[in-house]
Amino acid sequence: MKRLLSLLGNSATYIAGYALGSAGLLWGVAVGWIGQSWWGLLGAPLFLAGVGPCLWSEDQP
């Protein structure tokens, strides 16, 4: 049971991380590339903050 809860918690963390990363990527494309604005660069830290921990974590589900 503990293992199942641990896996569910890890999965929720990864889903949230990838959602944040996707939002950052969409922001960068929509505002930076399509809108031709420097504000699009704010999407990069969002992308790295969301996806980075998921990619470099040792205990992926």
UniProtKB/TrEMBL annotation:
<protein>
    <submittedName>
        <fullName>Uncharacterized protein</fullName>
    </submittedName>
</protein>
<feature type="transmembrane region" description="Helical">
    <location>
        <begin position="12"/>
        <end position="32"/>
    </location>
</feature>
<keyword id="KW-0812">Transmembrane</keyword>
<feature type="transmembrane region" description="Helical">
    <location>
        <begin position="38"/>
        <end position="56"/>
    </location>
</feature>
<keyword id="KW-1133">Transmembrane helix</keyword>
<keyword id="KW-0472">Membrane</keyword>
